[in-house]
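Apologies for my clumsy wording, but could you write out the amino acids of a protein and the C-alpha cells describing how it folds?
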Amino acid sequence: MIPKASRVFSRINCRAAVAAWRRPRAILWVAVGVVALGFLVTLEIAARRYTGQPGPITNQVQEVLFAPKPGPLYGGLALMMVALTWRQRFIAAGIAIGIDVVFVLVRWAADVKTADGHFFGNGALWVMLGYGVIAVTRRTGPERILLLKAVGLGLLLVAGRKTGDTWLLITAKTRSAVLDPYVATADHALGNPSWLAGRILKATGPVGTHLLDVVYAQLAVAAIVVALYQLRNVTVERRFPRHHLVRTFLVIGLLGPAIYMIFPVVGPVFAYGPGASGTGGVQWAVANLWPDTPLPINIPHPVSYDDLTPRNCMPSLHTAWATAIFIHSRKGPRILRFAGAFWLVATLSATLGFGYHYGVDLVAGVVFALTIEAALRSIERGWDRFGVQLVAYGATVFAALLLSYRYLPVEMARHPWAFGPLLILALASVIYGYVRTTRLWEPKSAPVRQPEPQPELV
C-alpha cells in the first residue's frame, strides 16, 4: 500500500509538471521543436526527390562513422562546452581529439580514401551526442535543461550547415532560370559596384585576394568567437543569455534560402564572367563582361543556367551574417568591436570583389539581417509598439526592394540619380529605425545620487 501522504505529494508534483508545460514559454519551445523536426523531414524528402541525394538528416547520421565534410563540428562542440566547467571542457576536447585520431588511424589502416580535408570531426559529434545522453540519464532539473540546451545549440550549428548545403542544391536543381539580368540592370542605380570592386581587387594582386578569401570563407569562425564571448558566463550563471548571435545566425540561414527560391540569382562572376572553379563557366554566362566591361542597359529577361551553381545571391546572406556579427560585437571589448567592424567591411569587399554578389544584393542583405534581429529581440523581450513597427517597416522595405529589382530595373538603370539615393535612403532608414528602437530598449541606468554638502564645524 502506498501511504496517503505519498499519493498526495505525487499528485501535487504531477500537477506542477503539467502546469509548467502549460506555460507559454514551454509551449513555444515544444512548438519550435516540432516545426524544426518537420522542416528537416520535409527537406530530406525534397532533397531525395529533386536532387536524388540524401538530405541533412541522412548526411548528419552518416558523419557518426564516415569521414565528415569540413564544417563547424568542432565549432558546435565549442558552443556546447559553454555549459561545462574548465575541467569538463578539457576532458571533452581530449576525448573528441582521441576519437578522431582513432578514426583517422582506422581509415589509414583500412586504406579508406577520403576527400581533401575530410579527416576530423567525428569525435566532436560523438562527444556532443554523448553529453546529450548524459543530460537525459545523469542530470535532473535545471542542470539537465541547461546541458540539453548546450547540446542542442552545438547540434543546431552543425545541422544548420547541412540544411544550408541541401537548400543550395535544391535551388540549383529546381530553378533552371535565373534573374541575373534584372538584378544586374538594377545595379546600375548604384554604379555597378561589383564591377568596380572586381577591378580594384584584381589590382591588389594575390595578397588582397588571399586576405579577403580567408575572411569570406571563415565567416562561421568569426561568428563562433563572438558567440563564445556572449556565452562566457553560462557556466557561472547556469543559464543562457536571453538573446545571442547564434539564434540570429541560424534564423538568417533558415529563412534566406526561401528567398533564393523566389528570386534565383547566381551572381555576376557566373552570369557575366568566367565563372568560378568547379561551377558555372563562360558557356552558361550571358556575356563575358565582368569585371572589365560595364553591362549595357537592355530589357532584362530570365536566362537558363546549369544545375550545379547555387542560386544564392538575393539577398546576400554573407552580408546578413556579417551584419549580425557586427551588431553583436558592439557590446564586447575594443578588440572584439574592431574585429566585428573589420569582418563586416572585409566581407562586403569580398562579396563584391569576387563577383559573388551585386550591390543591390548587399542592400537587401543588410535590411534582411536588421529585420530578423529586431524580430528576435522583440520575441525575447516581449512585443511592443516600437518592435512591431520596426519589424513591419523592415519587412516592407525588403519586399519593396525585391519588387523594384524585378519590375523596375530598367527605370532604375536609366535614372540612377534618383533610384541610387532612394536605395541608400531606404537602407539608412532601416538602420536608423533599428538603432533608435534598440536604444529605447536598453535599460536606463539610474543617475548616481550626489551626496549633499554637509556643514563644516568652525
Notes: Residues 43 and 55 are 7 Å apart (CA to CA). The beta strands are 177-178, 303-304. Residues 5-12, 16-22 have pLDDT under 50 and may be disordered.
